[in-house]
Design brief:
globular, single chain
Amino acid sequence: MNKHSALAGLAAALVASGSLAHDLKVDAGESLAMIVPAKGVQIYECRQAKGQEAGYHGYQWTFVAPEADLFDTRGMKIGRHYAGPQWEGADGSKVLGAVKARTDAPVAGAIPWLLLGTHSVGPEGAFSHVSSIRRVNTAGGLAPGEPCSAAQAGKLARVPYTADYYFFSRD
């Protein structure tokens, strides 16, 4: 069995076991290309809440961007993840993502699991053929639990998180 077949088998087993939400299924023409563990932070800023009634000036933690290192399954750094959201390989290849589906993480205190559609925005390389990314196995990363106020406006909070990003490509 080659590496590609083994990864595809693992992905099929995860879906069949029910450990992935139905909403996070990739298109039929896509197959698992690589599993990319990430470790970093989710960045939030204390900002005035939008859409508040006149005369009410509430503040809330608002998501700004991720900052994470990406690793291969042996633990070697292979790239980074940052605002956009973008995933950039060490070779300069990169993809830009847009959320297609989301589901709550099965673990309390973890950021949601996501399915993102992607397109290449960089040179040819390891990430340039990625068409979808599934974020699963998240830990941490939620906005701070304490409220923020006008006195804290503009304050940043960097909340540690880990996740596995499953990169898919078209067959």
